[in-house]
Amino acid sequence: MTSSDKPGNAADAPAETTSVAARDWATAAADPQYRAAVVDLLGALAYGELAAFERLAEDAKLAPTLADKAELAKMASAEFHHFERLRDRLAEIGEEPTAAMEPFVAAYDGFHRQTDPSDWLEGLVKAYVGDSIASDFYREVAARLDSGTRELVLAVLDDTGHAGFAVEKVRAAIDADPRVGGRLALWARRLMGEALSQSQRVVADRDALSTMLVGGVADGFDLAEVGRMFSRITEAHTKRMAALGLAA
Amino acid sequence: MTSSDKPGNAADAPAETTSVAARDWATAAADPQYRAAVVDLLGALAYGELAAFERLAEDAKLAPTLADKAELAKMASAEFHHFERLRDRLAEIGEEPTAAMEPFVAAYDGFHRQTDPSDWLEGLVKAYVGDSIASDFYREVAARLDSGTRELVLAVLDDTGHAGFAVEKVRAAIDADPRVGGRLALWARRLMGEALSQSQRVVADRDALSTMLVGGVADGFDLAEVGRMFSRITEAHTKRMAALGLAA
């Protein structure tokens, strides 16, 4: 038997680096570093959803009509249900959800504090941008997860996209007054800049999560790949903004 | 054929006044005054739920821990789903939900403006009091409605009671510092006073709804019965507050 015949051989790097996606949670989590990375990921996503709930609910107050208010409230409520699923998953794998979320509170709160919408349109653009970036990130990360975690992430992803109503409203506002487009384009750029800045802070602070992202765990990205992921998300954002009439 | 043999004879008052609860919506709504009253009721409940969602989400910011924040967010989300059911019902019976809600915006917004909690405990007491009064009112009104509307009101009612967690927290705070009890007792009294004041404003403003409540529509209350309903709700509130250690 040659070494290439041995299944699961640690020296068998190529096979190893494509295996996490094929494993279930119990098998994958036997690696304490992978487990810690997933706990970080679930904690970060959970607090992100809870913070999004809170901010969307607050931004709903800026709505010019009851129907608009109800739309933003609906999005907020959807985020809350995502939070519940992620929190329940943390509990299911024996983690204290609050402890898993705590490390990410400062980054999200910082993001929201720096991007407090000053009017309804800024709130709509923020809802749309936030929802879209979250979807992109969920989709990017899903492929690198064990089957159980991936299923959850995809289920939450499948339920995003509530911000579509925002597009129509923002378009109408720009049609009515093209100067609005310039202001909102700057706003969208600021949102993305702040999101990247906070993400980098998280990557710098959280060893397990970053290690997974930069390839220290089987199936993770290498550092260049992390950069490419941020690029893809930024490009998708730029395209969406242009389609919305917000060429920055 | 004598007049007493004629079914549906307008002179046949006793039979007429016990019949709404036995009718389905289509039959009951043939009476335009009953229909208008139910549209008012659904509009009032729907906006009440939407306003409650918004305020609970805002009060969640006062939470001392992430777990507390999640509990209040859960309540807010439940209120939003009540709103959805009530709004969908309005649409189903061919009414514009926004138009049905508009007449009640001032009363609810006035209530919330007058009862902005200054801290987490006041927010908890408000959540508990609001949830309990809403349950009591839904239960009182359900028996006077046609079968379709009653079913909806009972379904929404069945899903209330999310505020139970508040009781434990408030009790613990009073145990730790009995002076807190005095302050919160005054607060609870103010909440009830403001709720009654806004309710009376609504009763005075909305003919169709009030007429149903005071007995102008078959199966409605008489004026004394409306007074007794407010009394029962106030008494239940007072008992709950005493049980909570808030004897005002």
UniProtKB/TrEMBL annotation, chains A, B:
InterPro entries for this protein: Ferritin-like, Ferritin-like_SF, Ferritin_actino
Q: Please give one Pfam family short name.
A: MiaE_2
Q: Which residues form the Ferritin-like domain?
A: 32-216
Q: Could you identify this protein by its name?
A: Ferritin-like domain-containing protein
The organism of origin for this protein: Streptomyces lancefieldiae
Q: What is the lineage of its organism?
A: Bacteria, Bacillati, Actinomycetota, Actinomycetes, Kitasatosporales
